[in-house]
């Protein structure tokens, strides 16, 4: 059977409520707003078993080997990721709507109670949807909704990793 991980907004892959992989980005801007540099890294846990993870994250981490119960070739995963990224690069502008629809379909954050951590401030709300630009629409207890940008906050489920 085919395993399709969920997406924890904005960039983590999740299987069985455990993190399988994710994307890290770092961006630096010039004073005029131009991009100085952008660094993007993609990590997928491939061959680890439970005991390979540090003790403090074993309860929230998984790997392809653990999820599938099979041996995993990291080079095969890398090749397939490169192919998928190349295809996505070609499709990004002409098929942006369908890509965002697929993202929304697989986003497990939507519908969840979440905590939004921004420095010393923590707010709680319900993740309602994803905007076309990738922002998370959150409804707060007072009834107002707000679009949260990925660079602004850290999102945590109120009851565990998700």
What attributes characterize this protein structure?
162 residues; alpha+beta; four-stranded antiparallel beta sheet; 9 strands
Give an account of the 3D structure.
This protein is α+β, with helices and mostly antiparallel strands. It is 21% helix and 35% strand. It has three helices and nine strands. It has helices spanning 64-68, 74-91, 96-106, and strands spanning 6-8, 12-15, 18-29, 35-44, 113-118, 121-130, 136-139, 145-148, 154-157. A five-stranded antiparallel β-sheet has the order 8-7-6-5-9, with no helix packed on it.
Q: Topology, pairings included?
A:
Layout: E1 6-8, E2 12-15, E3 18-29, E4 35-44, H1 64-68, H2 74-91, H3 96-106, E5 113-118, E6 121-130, E7 136-139, E8 145-148, E9 154-157
Antiparallel strand pairs: 1-2, 2-3, 3-4, 5-6, 5-9, 6-7, 7-8
* Averaged pLDDT: 90
| Beta strands, count | 9
The helix content, as a percent range, equals 10-25%
Give the uncertain stretches in residue-range form.
Answer: none
Concise overview:
This protein is of the alpha+beta class and 162 residues long. It contains three helices and nine strands.
């Amino acid at each position: 059977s085919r395993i399709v991980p969920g997406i924890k907004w904005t960039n983590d892959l999740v299987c069985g409520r455990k993190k399988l992989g994710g994307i890290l980005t770092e961006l630096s801007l010039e004073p005029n707003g131009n991009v100085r540099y952008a660094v993007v890294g993609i990590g997928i846990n491939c061959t680890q078993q439970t005991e390979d993870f540090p003790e403090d994250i074993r309860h929230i981490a998984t790997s392809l080997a653990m999820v599938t119960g099979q041996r995993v070739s990291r080079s095969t995963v890398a090749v397939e990721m490169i192919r998928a990224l190349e295809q996505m690069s070609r499709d990004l502008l002409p098929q942006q709507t369908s890509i965002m629809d697929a993202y929304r379909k697989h986003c497990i954050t939507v519908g969840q109670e979440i905590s939004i951590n921004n420095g010393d401030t923590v707010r709680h709300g319900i993740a309602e949807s994803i905007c076309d630009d990738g922002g998370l629409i959150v409804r707060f207890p007072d009834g107002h909704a707000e679009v949260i940008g990925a660079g602004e906050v850290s999102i945590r489920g109120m009851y565990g990793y998700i």
